[in-house]
Amino acid sequence: xxxxxxxxxxxxxxxxxxxxxxxxxxxxxxxxxxxxxxxxxxxxxxxxxxxxxxxxxxxxxxxxxxxxxxxxxxxxx
Length: 77
What we know:
Helix content is 66%, strand content 0%. It is mostly helical. It has one domain (2-67). The two termini are 22 Å apart.
């Protein structure tokens, strides 16, 4: 999961919807119902947020990343 998300972040070039779609792929692989529950979100809302058709809020992204057991970190470019 982490390697896939890292690769997506490198290729996204600031496209939040692209990153959201990748998170959706990971969440579906882990079980969307459980990820939604762990993130404190409704499953239907999570499907919409991670569809790649829109850019979800950063709050939603952070909740999903946390629910997946991942961490964000930053490093100098």
